[in-house]
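Listing 4. Sequential folding, example run.
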Amino acid sequence: MKRATRAAVRRAGLGALLSLVVGGCAQLDGLSEHFGGASRGAGSDPPSYKVVPVSPAAEAGAAFMRGRALELDGKLLEAAESYEHAARLDPASPEIQRALAQVWLSAGEPERALGYAERALELEPDDLELRSGLATLHVRMRQYDRAVELLEPLFEEGALNEEGSFTLFTLYLNLDRVDGAKRVAQKLVETSPEDVRGYLALGAVYEREEQPALAEQTYRAGLAVDAEQPSLYEALARLKRSQKDTQGELAALRERLAVMPGDPAALLRIAQIQEDAGERAEATATLESLVAEHPELPGAQFRLGLFYYEAGRYDDAIARFQAVGRSGAGADGDPTRYENEVRYFIGLVHEEAGRGDAALAEFEQVPAGSPRFVDARAAMARLYERRKDFPAATAELKRAIAAAPEKLSLQVYLAGVLQRSGDMPGAVALMDELIRANPDEPDLYYDLGVLYGESGDRDRSLELMHKVLELDPDNASALNYIGYTWAERGERLDEAEGLIRRAIQLKPEDGYITDSLGWLFYQRGLQQQAAGNSDAARSSFNAARTQLEHALELLDKDDPVITWHLGDAYRSLARDHDALVTYQRALTLEPTADDAVKIQREIDLLQRKLSGAKRE
């Protein structure tokens, strides 16, 4: 390879397709002179003289010159025709094959260029420049085996530059030829010990070989060369993460922060680790310090907004979400990616804070093309239903269904809205239609059963729950529904307990199922108390209290009905003050209007009882 050409290859890297495959314009210009033509600038007119061929070689030269002129004028297809004519006359000319490869590459047809480049190399097998260019073309075509076959001789001869060597390394890994990759990586470290990329490559090989100790040793050798190289710290952290060594990963990230204080990528990952570990306060503090130093990071601002939202810090959450739109494109993403997410979550914040009109205004602005459009419309339906505006809720759900007809949950939700608005026939008709289309889907029978239960037809709801169990005997929701219904009625309590305990085995962390077991114990206690068996009743009431307290512990957010149940259990144990406080707590958790009346009645009774006891 000429020294100047080698230098150009080193500057441009292996990706410089045109110069590599064609071999440089100077060679073509020289070829033009050999055939008696003249080099011309782009845009000049073809020569007016005629070349009178006196031999196939001369005619090939003339055809080549015409092709050259047409190519310079941008007439690529005509140039290709002329080159192909030249190739038929002189099939042994590597220059013509090169020119054909070049023109088809320029025309955007690398598949056609490939054959001509292969033919050129066949004619000039010792042309290293052509070989590397052809390998690049095969990489572009994702024909990695052939690319490796072409690059390997260059690597063995020491004629492959660093960029080419890294390309060969990557190809070996893509082909799962770890030994070859290792050989290249070791050579890179040996020949360029000051280049940390070699250490990264060799460390990656050791990781692939499942030799983590050697991988870490290699990455640290790279850090000895350049202690401020972020990719080496990233590699160490990734290595520890692959070993599920969270503390090791944190140590690597903190090493990075010691060298690069405030590094956004390290802080983001630390916050993620803290969040995964349930250390929400620590994760929040990490993100707060990050956005204080780097307000331009939309991803960090957005995540911090979510933390505030989940913690009930609604104004802080809105401030973070709004900051996303003001941030530029940071290291953690483009702010436009979060635009509609921000509107949706600001809407959720307003909803949680009881600002319904503001929530509706935000949800309304989520456009139809957004991934959050369906969620926003469902949220609007939820708000309208809460206001008893059933026509508006129905309209929003129909918009959501039109955008995502495959989401059965939306249609089930619509059936629920119809039932709660008094249109039970419409709700049943919609559910029956869904069941006809999906006869083996147990959840649909379950949802229809719930609708019947909410409308007061418990017998029909139980029939449907048994149908669910026919399709899915381990359906915890159906087991719990049947067991809770029997417990609520105070009937078949032993059978109900068996069903509920099966459900708990399937979903031990479900607070609602645990509540069912507590409520069953409470109902059993009432029956024992009515039968005059006070000791057994007290034991059942204590079991109820234990289960109900545990149910609330399992929930992320207190539930008004379970809290009400716990108040009943305290009252049955003569813990009147605890019962009063618990009932009052239930009333703050937004129970239904009917439930609120019943809870208030219990509060009034207890307050009169307690005030009477004080007077006495």
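-- end of first protein; second protein begins --
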Amino acid sequence: MISVLFVDDNTDFLAQFRPFLEKTGEVHLDVVPSPKMAIEKLKSRVFDVVICFEDVPAVNGIEFVPDMDGIGFLRYLRSVGNPTPVILFHRRGQSRIAFEEIANGTEIVFSRNTDLRAPAADLITLIKQTTLRRKTEREAKLQNDQLTAILSATPLGIFQMRNAMIEWVNHPLATLLGTSESALIGKPVRTLFKSDEEFGQVCRDLQIHRDILGNGFAESEIAKTGGGFVACTLQARLLDPLDAKKGGTVVVTDISERKKMRDALKESEAKYREMMQNAQSIIIRMDLQGNITYANTFAAAFFDYSESDLVGKNVVGSIVPEKNRGGHDLSMMANDLGFNAEGYAINVSENVRRNGDIVWIAWINKAIRDPQGHITEILCIGHDITDRKQTGAVRISTDTWKDQVVSDTDVREEVFDTVFHIATEISIEGREGKAVGTTFLIGDTKNVLAKSRQIMLNAFEGHAPEMRMVTNPDLKENIKEFAQLDGAFVISGDGFIEASGRYITVDSSHVTLPKGMGTRHNSVAAMTSVTKAVGIVVSQSGGGITIFKSGQILKKITL
């Protein structure tokens, strides 16, 4: 139902149209005798259309709108912001009458003496058209207001251009440039850029480069009011993809902070590369097949290669021997590093120089991952820990790292040193040509003995104290011999061998270790998690040595 406010001048002619309108069933009329009454009605109700006689006689007694006619009534409505459409009824000379919809200029003209049924039908049609047009305008305005609110709320700057001129901008863009929307509208787009050449380049980029949605894409700097420039990206939906200057909608994204970070990252990478090249550490990067993809100057010189000669080689056969001195196959070492790139604090391994010299390197391995989290390369940082103070066979020096092992324990450094080197000899030599695996638990003996039991005769029970000190050189061969038997050695922090053949009774179900480590490793990890003991495990299958402390792998030595 269309609601119509009918301002009647109380003449018979205009009154003749009222029955036609009411009989349609599509129009509801509210009739008032004067503009004053119409104004009062409009204060409390909303109407779809107002029909008013143009030459309404003057109305006295209206305090705020005296002597108002139809035109004055319309002028008053617009002055107070009332957008209700108005159809004026006015004379055209003595014989003709017209209904005119003021906003659109549509009118119906007919003779004063004609049959009113046809003009009445036309008037109803005009009312419907006016109402529909008003509804469409309201919806368009609402959508436009919503769109404007969205575009103003977004942090992205947006402007529309046509024929290289700015037609509209949103508030964020004006704020970004330190000015107002009105100051930008009507200006040439080129004034946003450093020069005509820069503007031309941006236009070319918008025509050439496309994002995944097909929008033109460019990166540039736009000028701020008062000086300075803002680094930004521009994405444009162009009216003509072959000519950006014809116009379109452009989205501006401030990338100033991103650019600063990118520049800082480039500078950091340059410093990092310089540091890597000049570092007094062995720095190597390899892929998951063990092929060297990068070696710093120090690494190449240490292994007696040039950088170009070393890059591209597989670590096995170049810096890692095919087999170590104990006969263990090291060809899988690269795979082990790949799978356990972040599993150990330090991985100590036997390496070889180009001239055949054996060296011991303590490696820290770090996985390099792609954006999906998959390991693509391994970064290996190594330090030479070869003990060159000893004569004869090359040994692993513990000088740079044994303090990490014995700290917060009752274990003396010389005791750990002695047990560790006995373990390395067992790993390399075995016994009578056979590989041997064994376990040493050093320190906190009271708790270790309480959490373990004898599974065989204690080989050291009843011996003189001096023959139970692990630092006694004469005892080394006996220890190697007893290492073939089951159970662990329990040694006090000052070097006294409390027992051999001990079975660890600590629950190891909570222990989590890398794949490939067996029951012996799990038991020692569990024991060190509940005591202040240091554990050393010699692996029978692989010949490696693993050092445990506080339930964690502290070091892994590949022999």
